[in-house]
Model the fold of this input.
Amino acid sequence: MRGEAWLGDLVRAVAAVTPSGQRPDPDVVLRVSAMLGFTEPVEITEFAQGSQLPTAQMEEPVTPALPSDDVPIGERGDATAPQFEEPRRDSSNGQLIGLRRSWVETKAPPQVWSDPDVDALETATITMLRQPLPHEPLLRRASTSALVQSLLSQRLPGDEIDVDALVEDVAAGRAVTSLPRLPTPTLRCGAHVLIDDSDAMSLFWRDQWELARVVRNVVGPGLTDVTVFSGSPLLTDAGRDPEPRRAVLVLSAFDVLRGGAERDEWEDYVWGLRKRGCRVVALVPFPRERWPRWLTCLMPVICWDRSTTVGTIRSALGRAA
Done:
């Protein structure tokens, strides 16, 4: 075998072990050729004195032929270098000339958000955006009516006879002028809602009027009065006091943000209502630790919050009784 690739390797190997300017040793050439798989003798060419032997740095690199699998090493002189197809160059890539485009740019398919089983959303308009946001009151909507009944109902003699009281009067020898009746909770005396219009309640004006509307629906329009005051409860917009025996519901902050309301004015107002047979209860949208001590001693005060329940109201009314 005398392929160019193998001969080049032989020349480079011999030149590497032969001193510069000397003739290669034939024994060295034979050993190197045997190591490279040469089966035929290699002729040693004479070089003129002073000529430079080729070196690995001066030789042009030669690509060796790839051997086939069915031919023994050393007998593949007819092997030819494989042919590779060079990629077609695209001059439109600019600085990326020679790189093959590996992606395809396509438009994203339009996304369809419609579903025959789902109703289409209503398009927002300027009128819709100008509407006020839905209001979530301080009290739970599902229990507001029950809370109002607990706040405003009064235990008055009903239709059922109190047998125990009747037996006690007869046994004591007291004259029975009328049959005693068992007390039952009722709203027949009506209700009076007192709304605080001060700056401290400016954040809760919708809650105040929403609760007043619920009171009117529960008690009845003919038995419900609503008055508004600012600062002093003695100065209301209607200028009249609640009717006798009506339950009064006060929706106020009692100026807890500014250190407390006028104690004397509230004491005069509440004592005047009690002389008329009215029961007074207050809802305050502030935590209990901010209430003044004199206020809780004057009337039942309940925290106006979503945590308020019927049991909370009955407990507060029972302590004040």
Summary: Strands lie at 154-161, 181-186, 191-196, 224-229, 247-251, 279-284, 301-303. The chain has nine helices and seven strands.
